[in-house]
């Protein structure tokens, strides 16, 4: 193989690698934006819940969990979606983590240092 063939292959491989990294970076940015949107939705639900509770207590009315169940369920769903999006980001970045403890671990680690479970990756 000639020098120019090797150079051409090297340039081609580098371009493919950069293209993949660029795509991954854009995907991570989209996922982070999606996480921020869900975090804003959670803050808005907290504010709505706080205003409702304040209004009820101001009028000396009691509040039951059932009255707030819809908002609580939405918040829990959004928190779960955020957790899943964060896992996707770790997968895209090829970062190993313990799914049980939800901590990042080093590449060469086969078992979680906290819980001892096997790291799948």
Topology:
Layout: H1 3-58, H2 65-92, E1 97-98, E2 103-104
Antiparallel strand pairs: 1-2
Helix pairs in contact: 1-2
Structural commentary:
The protein is elongated and about 85 Å long. The chain has 121 residues and is mainly alpha-helical. A hairpin with a 4-residue loop joins strand 1 and strand 2. Helix content is 69%, strand content 3%. The protein has two helices and two strands. The model has no long low-confidence stretch (mean pLDDT 86). Strands 1-2 form a two-stranded antiparallel sheet. Keywords: Coiled coil.
Please sum up the structure shown.
Helices cover 69% and strands 3% of the residues.
Roughly what is the average pLDDT, rounded to an integer?
Answer: 86
Low-confidence stretches: none
Strand content: under 5%
Order of helices and strands, N to C?
Answer: HHEE
Shape: elongated
The CA-CA distance between the termini, in Å, is 37 Å
As for the number of domains, it is 1
Helix content: 55-70%
Query: Which structural class is indicated by helix and strand composition?
Result: mainly alpha
Instruction: Tell me the number of helical segments per DSSP (H or I, 4 or more residues long).
Output: 2
Report on the biggest sheet. Answer: 2 strands, antiparallel
| Strand order in the sheet with the most strands | 1-2
How many β-strand stretches? 2
Radius of gyration from CA coordinates: 23 Å
Keywords: Coiled coil
Protein name: Phosphate uptake regulator
Coiled coil: 65-95
């Amino acid at each position: 193989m000639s020098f120019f063939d090797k150079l051409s292959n090297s340039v081609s491989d580098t371009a493919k690698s950069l293209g993949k990294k660029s795509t991954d970076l854009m995907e991570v940015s989209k996922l982070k934006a999606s996480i921020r949107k869900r975090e804003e939705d959670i803050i808005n639900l907290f504010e709505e819940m706080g205003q409702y509770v304040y209004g009820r207590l101001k009028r000396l009315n009691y509040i039951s969990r059932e009255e707030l169940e819809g908002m609580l369920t939405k918040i829990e769903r959004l928190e779960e979606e955020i957790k899943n999006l964060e896992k996707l980001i770790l997968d895209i970045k090829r970062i190993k983590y313990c799914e049980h403890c939800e901590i990042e671990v080093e590449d060469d680690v086969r078992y979680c240092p906290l819980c001892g479970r096997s790291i799948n990756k």
